[in-house]
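Incident review: delayed structure delivery

Summary: a single-chain prediction request sat in the queue longer than the usual turnaround. Root cause was a stuck worker, restarted by the on-call engineer. No data loss occurred. The affected request and its eventual output are reproduced below so the record is complete for anyone auditing the incident later.

Affected input:
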Amino acid sequence: MTTPPKRKDHPLSMRLPEGDIAIIDRAADLRGRSRTDFVREAAVRAAEQVLMESTLVRMSAEGFEAFVQAVSAPAAPVPEMVASLRRRAPWDKATAKR
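Output delivered after worker restart:
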């Protein structure tokens, strides 16, 4: 006798007010996603953020000293960012080319 394949998905059920469902459905539709895909993605993203906020980072004393020096050093200009900030905004009529 063969064993059935192990299920990879786990159901999750919620009770939500009609207004919440309407907002979720509207946002999912704007993204071209199903309600399930939209809610799953949003829940996973929120969970990842919480985990990142509460993750303890350990490093050696030498590593910490290198980190402190890196964040304490004066900022160096990034040529691509400087060039981007010097460009005129296309919607700025006063400086737009005629």
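Verification: Residues 18-86 form one domain.
Action items: add queue-age alerting; document worker restart procedure.
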